[in-house]
Amino acid sequence: MPVRTRFAPSPTGYLHVGGYRTALYAFYVARQNGGAFILRIEDTDRERLVPGAVEALVRTFARMNMTFDEGPILVDGALKEQGSHGPYVQSARVELYKKYAQQLVDDRRAYPCFCSKKEIQTRRETFEKTGIHVTDLCRSLSVETGRVRMKNESHVLRFSWSLRRDFVECKDLVHGNLRFPNTDFDDFIILKSDGFPTYHLASVVDDHLMKITHVIRGDEWLSSLPKHVMLYEAFGWQPPAFAHLPLILNPDKTKLSKRQGDVAVEDYLAKGYLPEALENFVALIGYNPTGDREIYARDEMIRLFDLTKVNASGGVFNLEKLNWMNQQYLQKKTPAELAALGRAFVDDGIVDDATLEKICAVERTRLTTLGELPQAVENFLAPPSYEAPLLVWKKADAADAKASLDALAAFLETQDGALFADAKTIETSVMSFIAARGLKNGNVLWPARVALSGRAQSPGPFEFIWVLGKDETLRRLRHAVDLL
RNA sequence: GGCCCCAUCGUCUAAUGGUUAGGACACGGGCUUUUCAAGCCUGUAACCAGGGUUCGACUCCCUGUGGGGUCACCA
Length: 484
What we know:
Blueprint: E1 4-7, H1 17-32, E2 36-39, H2 53-63, E3 71-75, E4 78-82, H3 94-106, E5 110-113, H4 117-130, H5 143-152, E6 156-159, E7 167-172, E8 176-181, E9 189-191, H6 199-209, E10 214-218, H7 225-235, E11 241-245, E12 248-249, H8 265-270, H9 275-283, H10 298-304, E13 315-316, H11 319-332, H12 335-342, H13 353-363, H14 373-381, H15 398-414, H16 423-437, H17 441-453, H18 461-483
Parallel strand pairs: 1-2, 10-11, 12-13
Antiparallel strand pairs: 3-4, 5-6, 6-9, 7-8
Helix pairs in contact: 1-10, 9-11, 12-13, 13-14, 13-18, 15-17, 15-18, 16-18, 17-18
The protein binds one RNA strand through helix 4, strand 8, helix 6, strand 13 and helix 11.
């Protein structure tokens, strides 16, 4: 049987990193087995519809270079569907859920309940106060009564939890075998009074109909697993394999939330994290194929991934490590690649392509995210502003600094364009100039760097000369001489 | 509170009964050096506790403790 996995989010308008990792693992499993990876939209909560959310989600996955084999896709900006198991948006499947819910009613595994929300609420409060469980009154209604009242009374459909055994046994790929005491479950709702299904019914029906082989989802669903197992049993369907993934946590170990930082993939993209770095990082929360390495290409992950080796415990989202990871990926890019990627962050009215590429070449080891590029550009292009004493190297004095800068400027003045071709050539020339004059490296290079950058800490002078070009270099050098 | 899940350095993890408990981030030191980065070398740092099982437990079992999740006509 071909492997089929799905990512089934409710459309909230952004992709939570926890959901993203779930999708990623499902993607790995599907790709590893040559199976299908499916996107299904769970929009059965009509009160929480977010306009445009599906489009946004599809675009985000595209930015993350993840493609679905089935599900909603964007064609010329319009939402379409691909795949032969659709529709893939649950709101378009309501009749299907009604049909299956009715089947359960016919089989006496579900029944209509006419209690109002208020009544239920009252019962719940009574239970909390007294410990006396008064529930499921409608279960004892006769089939005939139920059928009659259904015609003109508002009602929901409840699953009839039958107490035929002490435990519900469940299997999970990451947690192993689980058993839940049967006594804890009430008759949960499968079809709401607005005719829409609840998650439990919809996901079970869809996963079955869409021939999903591995249900991969977050740990927050673990406690409702028995409900789903019972639903499969009531329908007489073979349940898929389940894998409940550990939660991604805030630094304080609670479920990752907006309150404590960015939770959306879109946020990290906007800050200039590379998709492949984010993927690598997120994949490693809860799982590491070898344990002695951190950088894995996607192909490698697909090859090595093993659901049964996913950690059972939650993992903190460690921003420091993401930063390191992103830097690693940034350093592997060529200057041209960085410049192309960086264009999204720096307007071309501010810097031309050639200069941006030079700046990228120089800043490569200093960038944590692409979002820092504008500041880097600014640091190169804005006229330096500093106090004259900064120009003086700790082992020299002002007079020496002035003489050194003067000599350097004079030397560069005489050079033609060839010397300015690249930072390495500039370095070679300037270093031999320093040696020929019997000068000391620090005495020349420190003041030169400050004159060019205006800062105590910055990229080196040769890199500045290269980026700025001959004219601007000389201008800044002479300005420094004047200051001294 | 009921039920469920979880428990290795501060953090992410490796280890599937026998290791000086390994790697990575962060942090400290050093090298390189014109500064800052990057790079290289290196240091500090962990098996939650108590009982078992076993010749031998981080690994298996029990209990406790701690943390988390979930208890909706939300997913």
